[in-house]
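We emphasize that the prediction below concerns an isolated chain of 264 residues; any contacts that depend on oligomerization or on bound cofactors are therefore not represented. The input was used exactly as deposited, without trimming of termini.
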Amino acid sequence: MKTIHKITHVLVALAALLCMTGMAVSCSDDYDGYHTSTEIGALTPTLTAKTVSSLSFRWLLLHQTAATAYEWRLTDTEGGIVQQGTTETNTVTVDNLPDGTEFCFYVKAVPAAGSRFTSALEGSVKAATVKDLSWQVKGTYYRDCENAIGFYNTYERTMTFTAATGVYTISNFYDTGTDLEFKLDGNIICPKGTNGTFASASQGYWMVPLGNTEAGLETYIGSGYCEFSGNEDAGYVFFYYFYYPNAADNATYYWAYDWFEWGV
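Result of the prediction step, given as a token string:
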């Protein structure tokens, strides 16, 4: 028992000594990580999100009696300032950055007016934006192939792959001013429908938008009926569909398939 009391007295005395010297103990209700009695210790920022063009960071929010703002800056690997600013919160998102690029993020607290702190150390972390793997190709679009009427139309069109969303877009695909958007499930294309959602790989019949027109275009989603093959160098896309000159009249239609190819 005497030994326990002695240890307790030693710990109390040690805590008191540390408080007097300003070292990292809980000497007040505001923050227990101060570097000295007049200097706020370095914060530790962490990367919370990244895209092809932005980086988001978070750090410890200090008690308002110690700091009411935070100065931050983002530099390139050579130390050149890319962006900088001041915030009253403990988060920041830096936008309009180049993809696949490494940066250094720095942040430090701004001592609150009237507090005992006159300076603050700076914390930092390295982070890089996501490499943008998007691509765009120009190719030939064949419309209405082998339909009941027996004709087809040929157009020069552009297809864009947006890596961040996984969406492929063929511009003005049916010559009505509307783009065809689709995702992939394996090699099956899953178009965006008139309801604003993307089809599943086993969807079956699926209406896609044709713009400001009375006509309707109903694709059939399934293996062998809609397919994607290729990459940014070369490839093709095709899909079968029913075309309704008047979408309100589902008894009048013809069937066909469209084909888009590039790099061949």
